[in-house]
């Protein structure tokens, strides 16, 4: 009796697993289809220098305009494909689309550094450098120095030697690099010496609690010190309030990105936003 129910249970479990695999397969197929059907869209979130309110750049963040579900955020679909080649197709679409947008902005006199998020699998792909080179060649009016690639600190740590090589080769083209979600990757101080990233992006989890949690404040202070010591730039993400910005400036971090500046917005709204942006008085006073 016990044996029988055991076998039945195993059987049931098997079916469930099968169902799960099929669902994931369908979801992935749907994501691939979304790319072909042009259902993805890039939103852009500004970055500013709090000392004077200059807009220094934008980050491209992908959205899925799903015909039934509305706007779907990247955390709801990218994890399903990050270990497949779909993430590479999506990443290439993001790079191309971003350069296209930058070309418009450059023509209108906006000299912004625009960053794209690139997955580890894509970045580590043998064709990454060549593809990047050919995309840049398609937009000769966009200075490569205006393009920035964000890779997760945790991803860069997977294979520091390889990441270092690709990073340096891309930098030869003029492209900049940022280490995203910095501080969450259990990094040792010494590996930063080997990674020529131009900028560290302080993870928003530290920024969120910095006004209440002195440990987070200390961590941010340490990251700013690290950036200074290694002559890298540093920016805080997730700057939701004016007070967060003031506290960051006191620690020597002058670049900010977050809802306190602007939420990500469709490309069509960016220029109008930039024309009407007013820097908080407290930030100017803190400078
Ligand atoms: P990320 O690159 O660290 O981007 C920051 C995320 O925090 C974005 O979420 C942004 O909308 C959100 N954010 C910005 N300011 C604030 C704030 O003040 N408060 C809070 N609570 N959140 C804020 P989003 O757009 O949902 O993207 C999530 C993650 O998905 C990104 O994290 C990035 O890792 C990934 N991602 C987004 N677009 C792409 C893409 O085109 N390709 C790849 N491979 N990954 C992407
Ligand atoms: Mg990012
Ligand atoms: Mg981040
Ligand atoms: Mg993140």
UniProtKB/TrEMBL annotation:
Domain EAL residue range list: 24-278
Keyword Transmembrane helix carried by entry: yes
Domain of life (superkingdom): Bacteria
Key words, A-Z: Membrane, Transmembrane, Transmembrane helix
Descriptive protein name: EAL domain-containing protein
Residues of the full protein shown: 654 to 940 of 940
